């Protein structure tokens, strides 16, 4: 079994619906990862232990997702020297703005890189780019992924130019 390079933690199993996009990115780029449910408020000791032991397990980047008070990314960052990426999760109230503000307003000396609300895919890509700094194989996979995305966008633009916006939207809505 390959050692995980990324640790994904989320405050609740309800966050898994969003965080699966991170796992899909790592699956596509062939980056080993692990996923855990840990809570800054409900399992503080276990959360701190996980963050403190992550580096010794070979983890290079931690991704922490949380909604509402969104304390998990900060709790994780406080307990490790590894880079931490926070994913604010859209909760029932405030459209995720509360989560976003909780994560980006970290005190000095406890940095958390933060992606947009529910932007688990970007968290995965950012982690992959961090790992790619020291891993040429992953760097190549990230470059291939970005090239694939570029080709997809250019194909959509070509179709739009060919058939026009009204037909393009009708076809898109039909899917």
UniProtKB/TrEMBL annotation:
InterPro entries: PurE_ClassI, PurE_dom, PurE_prokaryotes. Its EC number is 5.4.99.18. Gene3D superfamilies: 3.40.50.1970. Residues 4-153 form the PurE domain. It holds the Pfam family AIRC. One of its GO terms (molecular function) is 5-(carboxyamino)imidazole ribonucleotide mutase activity. Catalyzes the conversion of N5-carboxyaminoimidazole ribonucleotide (N5-CAIR) to 4-carboxy-5-aminoimidazole ribonucleotide (CAIR). This is N5-carboxyaminoimidazole ribonucleotide mutase. The gene is purE.
């Amino acid at each position: 079994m390959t050692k995980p390079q990324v640790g994904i933690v989320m405050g609740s199993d309800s966050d898994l619906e969003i965080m699966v996009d991170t796992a899909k990115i790592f699956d596509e780029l062939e980056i080993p990862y692990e996923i855990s449910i840990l809570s800054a408020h409900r399992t503080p000791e276990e959360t701190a232990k996980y963050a403190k032991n992550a580096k010794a397990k070979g983890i290079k980047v931690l991704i922490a997702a949380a909604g509402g008070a969104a304390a998990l990314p900060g709790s994780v960052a406080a307990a490790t020297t590894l880079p931490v990426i926070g994913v604010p999760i859209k909760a029932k109230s405030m459209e995720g703005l509360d989560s976003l503000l909780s994560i980006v307003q970290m005190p000095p000396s406890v940095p958390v890189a933060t992606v947009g609300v529910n932007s688990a895919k970007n968290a995965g890509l950012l982690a992959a780019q961090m790992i790619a700094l020291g891993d040429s194989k992953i760097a190549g996979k990230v470059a291939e992924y970005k090239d694939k995305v570029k080709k997809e966008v250019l194909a959509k633009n070509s179709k739009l130019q060919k058939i026009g916006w009204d037909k393009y939207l009708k076809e898109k809505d039909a899917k």
